[in-house]
Amino acid sequence: MKKLSLLLALLLLLAGVLPMTAQDMLPYPSDLTECEVDLTGETINIFHFGDLSGPYAFITQPIVSAVTDAVNYWNGRGGVCGAELAQVYEDTGGSREAAQSAYDRFTSTYGGELDLLLLYSSDDGELLREQLAEDEIVSYIAAGSIESLYGEDGQTPGWLYASNPLYINQFGFFCQFVAANSVAFPDPVIAFVTWPGAFGQAGTEPAAREYCGGLGVEVLPEPQIFLPTDTDILTQVQNAVDGGANILYTNSLATGPALLAGTLVDLGLENEIKLAGVNWVMDTSVGILGQRVLKPDGLPSVDGMFGSMPFLWWTELSHPAVQFVTQQFNANNRSPAEQNIAYLVSWGVADAIIETTIRTANAVGSLDGVTGAAIRETAEAMDYAVLGGLYQHSFEKGMRDGVLNRIAVLKYANTTMSGAATGPDDALLIDDGAGGKLFVPIVVPLSDFMEVPQLRG
């Protein structure tokens, strides 16, 4: 087979051959607001910083690739309202000190030009929440914690806007799914086996246990914690199982879900205990890393893991947004590991930033007149289908996180690409570029988009 990215090989076969010549490139999927102000000669910077080399690197590195591709796409077509796009970013390596230093440099160097900032993590959001408000800088982020978005009291909307639902709300949504599917989840008891911190322990709050309990889904009170650097979590998994759990839920990413699934296989519990997690467990990195350990049936350890999917996915090629991003990914010769959540959603974030900037410039009459306060007013008035429907940007009535979600399952494609493989004999295997073979991960939605419960209090 021609060397292609892990999922692109499947996607191109599913969709037929997406046009690749310049004249056949797909149209931009969003219905952007018409420009009322000529910004020719101006530059619109997309500012962002975060962990690109630390524990989140598996997820975050494609952010830079996606923003780069979006910038080049628009500049190759005359810019946005005539303005050239550019990006300014730094790698903070997962360090709070480095994040603070980057923020200080950005604000001191770019002054009044920095009105809109893309952040990567809940932890950075918590660190900078009050500073963003004081400096009147709006921040877009894929997912934020209660504290970063709503303050310590959970009731004070700030200057950060998250496209994904809060993790506690995603967990409550999963409990709804479990309660509605009693045949698949008889007598459900959930234990968190997860990373520490604002991200890892989101959903372990008493309000979540109470909500799930009211649905008939028991949640064990004590989460089992492991570090992103851990390679052995046998004790944590055994503690959860000994506590009565038959579902393990994790807020971890990349190596975390793969380690959890592999541990269940090592214990011989892969058929007894179900796995689930926040939206990041559906990422391509999990589908790849989960192949280090195989189940007795020959499929990767993470096969069958449940998770949230609050946006469209790569395999939903009937949608113009997915068709467009897939074509851009291929045209820019991106690497296999980059075909993940971050690349897909970051094209959406770039689109949201462009739409926000156009609307705000139209309102104030110039790019120089754009301020953080004006950006905030625009952001809260928008009800916008990002990239024509990749996800919804809507933050009315004080909301700072997304409200729509659905549940999906991570599987692997069969040879006919008509569904999921039942074992290695009917699984689609592709060259890994190093003389080996890889299963092709797919994400299968199990429910429609619906509103999540609001559990932040």
At a glance:
This protein is an alpha/beta fold.
Q: How does this structure look, described?
A:
By secondary structure, this protein is of the alpha/beta class. It has two domains: 16-165 and 317-403, Rossmann fold (3-Layer(aba) Sandwich); 167-309 and 406-451, Response regulator (Rossmann fold). Helix content is 35%, strand content 17%. The chain contains 14 helices and 19 strands. The strands form five sheets. Strands 6, 7, 8, 9, 10, 11, 15 and 18 form an eight-stranded mixed β-sheet that branches. A five-stranded parallel β-sheet has the order 2-1-3-4-5, sandwiched between helices. A two-stranded antiparallel sheet has the order 12-13. Strand 1 (43-50), helix 2 and strand 2 (84-91) form a beta-alpha-beta unit. The protein starts with 7 loop residues before the first helix and ends in a 6-residue tail after the last strand. Residues 1-23 have low confidence and may be disordered.
